[in-house]
Amino acid sequence: MREHAERGFTLIELVGVIAIIGIVGGAAIPPFMENARAAQTAEVTTTIKKVYLAELDCHSAAQRFCSARELYEGGYIDARVAAALGIDALLPAEYDSSAGGRDRGYLFVLELSPDRLEFIINADPAAPRRSGDQRMSLDQTGQIRITCLPGSKLNVQTQRCEPNDNFLASRALRAIRRLNNLSEGKGVALAQQVATREAVANALRAIDANGDGALSTSEFDNLAALGRKLRDARTASIPGPAPGRDVLDEILSDYLDTVRADLAPGIAEAPAVFVPIATIDADVAAFIGLAK
Q1: 281: how many CB neighbours lie within 10 A of its CB?
Q2: DSSP β-ladder status, 160-163 and 106-112
Q3: What angle do CA 285, 290, 292 make, to 5 degrees?
Q4: Residue 271: inside a domain, yes or no?
Q5: 118 and 18, same structural domain?
Q6: Residues 154 and 170 in one domain
Q7: Does any domain span residue 45?
Q8: Which of 141, 245, 264, 270 is the most core-located residue (most Cβ within 10 A)?
Q9: Which ranges of the chain does DSSP label H, i.e. alpha helix?
Q10: pLDDT at position 243, please?
């Protein structure tokens, strides 16, 4: 294979980067995010239902709905739910946050009407489209209302908001186009040839740090390690200095850093999620073809 004289890297080396980016952006991350958000939505729903039931109990005793502090001090909610509502159990009431609190990547706010005969609990993504795609609210009627954020739509069957596009895949395609331009338009075609199902499986196993056959939250949190493994593999397979390799590394690092920034809000407080590698089945070659 001919080496690109000006930039100092081979086309095979370039294709390896393209294939890995296509695999990570187009095959592995979407099912992980789907599972993570399903688990997250369930936990957020559980939290607002706990507050709802606590308010009903407090109303039965006091003939009015109660503040978050009153719910906690009355024993209607535990410390974790109180913290989600902006109450620090170790601090006095004057330190309570009127803006609510945060849990599982969501911001929770409990609002009472002036006469305390009505209330509403709102749960909003702390980082819209990253830590969540929907706003949930629950009032004294007991009806949960779901509002999809711009760029997402409600799936009637699952009752979850889903993004109209895969923002991580779009990042991958942008990086692939940059790499394709560097290879004078040859990278995409060759990447489609080498991105076999076996190559996909090998790349996913590389991400699976503990070898348990599933991708976990922590393994995606260490996504940058994939870039280091790729650079180490290139160094081992191609002896000698490559004067222009920093150009390729810059593109790869830029992509990985962007993905890491996009994933971080959702991963930081996401429930533990495990996606079996065997369930990740995608035509990566077709995905890479979208870069044309």
Answers
A1: 11
A2: unpaired
A3: 105
A4: yes
A5: no
A6: no
A7: no
A8: 270
A9: 11-23, 29-62, 68-73, 79-84, 167-182, 187-194, 197-207, 217-221, 224-237, 245-268, 284-289
A10: 37
Q: How far apart are CA 117 and CA 104, in angstroms?
A: 29
Question: Are residues 15 and 151 located together in one domain of the fold?
Answer: no
Domain membership flag for residue 44? no
The whole-model pTM stands at 0.63
Residue 284 lies in a domain: yes
Specify the number of domains making up the chain: 2
User: Tens of pLDDT along 192-241?
Assistant: 666 666 766 776 777 777 888 877 766 765 555 555 555 555 554 444 44
d(CA 268, CA 247): 31
| Contact call for residues 172 and 26 (beta carbons, < 8 A) | yes
> Lowest-pLDDT range, 1-10, 99-108, 152-161, 184-193?
1-10
Q: Please indicate, yes or no, whether residues 84 and 179 belong to a single structural domain of this protein.
A: no
Q: Which amino acid is at 133?
A: D
Mean pLDDT, range 68-77, rounded to an integer: 96
Q: Among 162, 197, 218, which residue terminates a domain?
A: 162
Distance (Å, whole) CA 111 – CA 28: 40
Cβ contacts of residue 169 below 8 Å, gap of 6+?
A: 25, 26, 30, 287
Tokens standing for 40? 């997250």
pLDDT of residue 24: 60
Is 279 exposed, middle or buried, given 0-12, 13-18 or 19+ CB atoms closer than 10 A?
exposed
More confident residue, 146 or 291: 146
Q: Which two tokens stand for residue 36?
A: 């993570």
**Radius of gyration of the CA atoms of the chain, in A:** 24
Residue showing tokens 């191609």: 238
User: pLDDT higher for 72 or 13?
Assistant: 72
Q: How many CB atoms lie within 10 A of CB 110?
A: 24
Residues of the domain holding 246: 8-38+165-289
Q: Cα separation of 276 and 76, whole Å?
A: 39
